[in-house]
Write a structure and sequence with these properties.
Blueprint: H1 3-12, E1 18-21, H2 28-37, E2 41-45, H3 59-71, E3 80-84, E4 87-92, E5 101-102, E6 105-110, E7 113-117, H4 119-125, H5 150-159, H6 168-174, H7 186-192, E8 205-210, E9 218-224, H8 228-242, E10 245-250, E11 253-258, H9 262-275, E12 284-288, E13 292-298, H10 319-327, H11 337-348, E14 354-357, E15 361-367, H12 382-385, E16 389-393, H13 409-417, H14 424-431, H15 436-449, E17 453-455, E18 468-470, H16 472-483
Parallel strand pairs: 1-2, 8-12, 10-16
Antiparallel strand pairs: 2-4, 3-4, 5-6, 6-7, 8-9, 10-11, 12-13, 13-15, 14-15, 17-18
Helix pairs in contact: 8-9, 9-11, 13-15
C-alpha cells in the first residue's frame, strides 16, 4: 500500500470495509473475524476515528501480534500486514472458509461496526460455508466502460461522500464494489444502474393504489426501476402522494402531517430494498388500500433469523449493499429497522404495523388511521390519485395575512398568475414553464394540497373542461401580498 492508497482510504472514512484503530491490537480479533465473514477489509492502525493519522511505533512487534491474532481464529484467517509511513495496514482478503470465529465467538460486519453472532446463526446466515453473498458476486451484465456514465458516477459519488478528485475505479475498488477480477459486483450494479432491470430483471418496485380494501379495482399504478437509492426516494414520495395529508396553518407556520409517519414508511421501504432476495423472480411491491399500506418484499427472513428475532436483531441478506446504503445515510440505525418503525408509529399516535412472514415473502402492513374496514374510497382522486389534503387553517381572519411570507416562492408565482377560472395550459404558459410534469409536481399539486387553489370540477380531475381558481385562503394571501 502506497501513500496515495492510504490517503484514499482515509478520505473515504470508516465503513463496511474499513476500520480505523488509533493504536495497539485491542479487539483486533473481533475485527479480523468480522471482515473474514464479510467481503474482507482493511484495518488501519495509527488512524483515529476522526480520520487523523497519528501513527504507531514498533511496527515489527505489531505485525507479529496481528499475525498471531489472525492465526488464533478458527479457522486461521489469512491477513496481509504492511507499513505505510507511520500507519500499519492489516488487510483481510476475501476468505474461502466461512464462517470464522475468534475466542469461540462469531462476528459479522454491519455498516461500520462489527456485531457478534451465535455460531448457528452464522451457519444459517450463509447458504453454506464458503458461499459468498449474491450482492458480492460479479455482475456479468455491467460494463464499466459502457454502463458507468459520468452522470451516474457524479450522482453516486455525492451520495457516497467520495472525494471529487478520486478516480471512479479506485473508489469502487476501495469500497469493494469492484472485485479482484476487476468486475463490478451485483451491489455496485444496483447502486449505479440507470435501469436496474438491465442487471436484475426483478429488481424494480411496483406500486399500486386500489379502491376499497382488496385488489379488485386499481385506481393508479406506477413502477420505479432506477438505482436502489433513487427508488427509495421515489417510492416514499409515491406513497405520500396517495395517502391523506393534513395541512395545519398556525399563524406564520404551515405544518404538513401525513396520516402515517414518513420516517416509518421510509424505513420499511429501505428494509424492503436492502434486505430483499435479489435472486428471486419477484419484485418489491407496494399496495395502498383504503384501510392499509402494504410493503411486500421477496425472500422471507434472512437465514439465521426467526419471527421472534424481529425488532431485536438484524441480519442483512445483502451486507455489501446494506453497508453502502448506510454510508449514503439511507440507513440511519444499524439493526433497528422493525423496532424503529414500531417506535415511530407509537410516537406518531398511529397503530403499529402488522408483520407477515412466509418462506418467500415478507410483508409490512401499516393500518391507515380513522378508516373502517369494508368502506369505499372515491373512484377518482385529485390529480390521478394524489393525496387528499385536509387544510386546517388555525388562524383567525385578522391574522391570516401573516401566512403570506411562509408560502413558497413557486406557489406565490402561481397565485399571482391566477385570474378567474384558468385551465392548466394557460397557467403553465403564463408561468413560462415547458414541462407539464414539473408544473404539476412543483406548482399545481402543492397549491391544491395547501388549499390555495381549487378545481372547478373536483369530481373529474382529468376533465378537458377542468379549470382552477383561487380559494378564499389563496385570495387573502394575494391581497396581503399586494398591501406589502
Amino acid at each position: 500500500m502506497n501513500k496515495q492508497n492510504l490517503a484514499n482510504l482515509v478520505a473515504l472514512g470508516e465503513g463496511f470495509t474499513t476500520e480505523f484503530k488509533r493504536s495497539g491490537t485491542s479487539n483486533l480479533g473481533r475485527e479480523l473475524c468480522a471482515f473474514a465473514n464479510a467481503t474482507g477489509g482493511v484495518i488501519l492502525i495509527g488512524v483515529s476515528d476522526a480520520g487523523e493519522i497519528v501513527g504507531v511505533a514498533d511496527h515489527n512487534r505489531l505485525k507479529s501480534e496481528v499475525q498471531a491474532t489472525a492465526r488464533s481464529a478458527e479457522p486461521p484467517i489469512v491477513v496481509e500486514v504492511e507499513s505505510c509511513g507511520e500507519v500499519l495496514a492489516a488487510t483481510v482478503p476475501a476468505q474461502q472458509s466461512k464462517p470464522y470465529s475468534f475466542g469461540g465467538k462469531f462476528f459479522i460486519r454491519e455498516g461500520a461496526s462489527s456485531q457478534q453472532m451465535a455460531r448457528g446463526e452464522i451457519r444459517e446466515f450463509f447458504y453454506k460455508e464458503g458461499l459468498i453473498h449474491f450482492d458480492e458476486t460479479p455482475c456479468e451484465k455491467f460494463s464499466l466502460s459502457v454502463d458507468l456514465t459520468e452522470e451516474g458516477w457524479a450522482l453516486f459519488r455525492r451520495r457516497a461522500k467520495i472525494p471529487a478528485e478520486m478516480e471512479p475505479v479506485t473508489a469502487l475498488a476501495n469500497l469493494h464494489l469492484i472485485g479482484t477480477d476487476g468486475r463490478l459486483t451485483q451491489a455496485g450494479a444496483w447502486l449505479l444502474a440507470r435501469d436496474i432491470r438491465k442487471f436484475n430483471i426483478s429488481g424494480d418496485v411496483a406500486c399500486a393504489l386500489f379502491m376499497g380494501t382488496d385488489k379488485v379495482r386499481i385506481l393508479d399504478r406506477r413502477g420505479f426501476n432506477g438505482d436502489v437509492y433513487s427508488m427509495i426516494d421515489e417510492v416514499v414520495a409515491y406513497i405520500l402522494s396517495k395517502i391523506n395529508v393534513e395541512y395545519i396553518i398556525k399563524h406564520v407556520k404551515r405544518e404538513e402531517r401525513p396520516e402515517l409517519p414518513e420516517e416509518a414508511l421510509r424505513e420499511a421501504v429501505v428494509n424492503a430494498l436492502a434486505h430483499r432476495d435479489y435472486r428471486s423472480t419477484g419484485n418489491v411491491q407496494v399496495y395502498i388500500f383504503k384501510n392499509r399500506v402494504e410493503i411486500v418484499s421477496p425472500g422471507g427472513l434472512p437465514a439465521g433469523m426467526t419471527e421472534a428475532d424481529l425488532g431485536i436483531k438484524s441480519i442483512p441478506r445483502n451486507p455489501l449493499l446494506f453497508g453502502i446504503l448506510h454510508r449514503m445515510e439511507a440507513v440511519e440505525h444499524i439493526g433497528s429497522g422493525i423496532k424503529r418503525i414500531r417506535n415511530l408509529c407509537r410516537e406518531y399516535g398511529v397503530a403499529e404495523p402488522e408483520l407477515e412472514v412466509s418462506e418467500n415473502w415478507f410483508t409490512v402492513s401499516f393500518p391507515r388511521p380513522n378508516v373502517e374496514d369494508g368502506g369505499e374510497q372515491p373512484e377518482s382522486q385529485p390529480e390521478s390519485g394524489s393525496s387528499q389534503a385536509q387544510v386546517t387553517p388555525e388562524v383567525a381572519p385578522e391574522v391570516a395575512p401573516e401566512v403570506a411570507p411562509e408560502v413558497a416562492p413557486e406557489l406565490m408565482r402561481l397565485l399571482a398568475t391566477m385570474n378567474g377560472n384558468m385551465d392548466r395550459q394557460s397557467l403553465q404558459t403564463a408561468l413560462g414553464l415547458k414541462a407539464e410534469k414539473n408544473f404539476r409536481l412543483n406548482y399545481l399539486r402543492p397549491a391544491i394540497n395547501a388549499g390555495l387553489i381549487e378545481m372547478t370540477i373536483p369530481d373529474k380531475p382529468r376533465s378537458s373542461k377542468q379549470r382552477y381558481r383561487l380559494t378564499s385562503l389563496g385570495q387573502r394571501i394575494i391581497e396581503q401580498q399586494d398591501k406589502d
